[in-house]
Amino acid sequence: MSMTDYILPHSDPLEDDRLMLMSKMLDPYTRFRISQLGLGAGWKCLEVGAGNGTISQWLADRVGPTGHVTAADIDTRFLDRLARPNLDIRQLDVVKDPLGDAYDLVCARAILHHIPERLDVMARLAAAVKPGGFILLEEPDFHPVLDTDSPAVRDFWRGFLAWAANCGIDYFVGRRVAPTLSKIGMADIDVHGETIMFQGGSASARYWTLTFAELREPILALGLITPTLWNEALALFDNPEFWSWQNCFVVTTARKPA
Ligand SMILES: C[S@@+](CC[C@H](N)C(=O)[O-])C[C@H]1O[C@@H](n2cnc3c(N)ncnc32)[C@H](O)[C@@H]1O
């Protein structure tokens, strides 16, 4: 995979804002789940696909001067502005580049669904965990989005999901993480899903409208969503009287046997 293969590249002028909305929406949940693992001073952590680095920054503050965090991404432009003495920024492709090893915690959020080699990548991430250490993978599962009272929004999501499947994105990978980790020998596997119900016009809705804006051209080109349906659905994403489920974010944690 190269930077140009990634469908939501950091070079898009909307991407910095979109990632910031993603951090706002998901960080409290992610931080809670990481804290549940017992994260503390001195831990050595790796975050891959770190995006704008809000989780890596928080990890660096939590592990303190005796700990260390590596924030890795295929494109580090939003990470380079982070500054912490115990935080390293690394540009790497998680599919093929060395990741290091003996981490107390390896974590990744919202990256595997984009990567066709996702099952192999899970094994690579697990291999980088030290015996007794933890992995935390947070990925989407879109099962809730079709459960909406709006036929327009349902048809819109159907078209969106068909477009995604057509370009190799697995928006249902959330349910596949635990079985994969189990197969490769990880222990104490725990899975929790959180689904946000968004209000039209809210920050969560805007995260989606920015995502759709970045992808408008290729989605419409597939022909499953007409421009009329696009406008009808997007008007609801902007309407404060509209509430609907977004995708479920599935956090899977596991420990490597000591
Ligand atoms: C949807 S963003 C999620 C960012 C961040 N983890 C978050 O949840 O806010 C996916 C991130 O994965 C990175 N990425 C995509 N493919 C990658 C690869 N093969 N190796 C490393 N990072 C990759 C992207 O550059 C992007 O920052």
Automatic annotation (TrEMBL):
InterPro entries: Methyltransf_12 (IPR013217), SAM-dependent_MTases_sf (IPR029063). It holds the Pfam family Methyltransf_12. Transmembrane segments: none annotated. The keyword Electron transport does not apply. Keywords: Transferase. GO terms for molecular function: transferase activity. Residues 46-135 form the Methyltransferase type domain. PANTHER family: PUTATIVE (AFU_ORTHOLOGUE AFUA_2G14390)-RELATED, TRANS-ACONITATE 2-METHYLTRANSFERASE-RELATED. This is Methyltransferase type 12 domain-containing protein.
